[in-house]
Amino acid sequence: MKRSDFVNLNRSGKRLETKHFVVLLKPNQVGITRLGVTVSKKVGNSVIRNRVKRIVREFFRLNKHLLPQGHDMVIIARPGAARLDFWKVKEELGEVLFNKNPG
Fold it and tell me: Which stretch of DSSP H or E encloses residue 11?
């Protein structure tokens, strides 16, 4: 994803929120689902931020077939996301992403 894709998604994408994440979704013209992950310094130091990004990317990799196809998706971690393990991330993101009809 290019920077312009991120900016466009932030302006006009569908916003889904959970306790620890904000998910921005928008259909794309590419036909594949693309992921962007944002973790600010408010979440923790670089080791913690990279761990959160790895967990979110692993969630995406393992559940790609269940996610809306042909969409750009940005997952923004909120402070507190650092305390979650993979299964809690899967539960929280799965709750808003699976079987949803994104717009």
Answer: helix 3-12
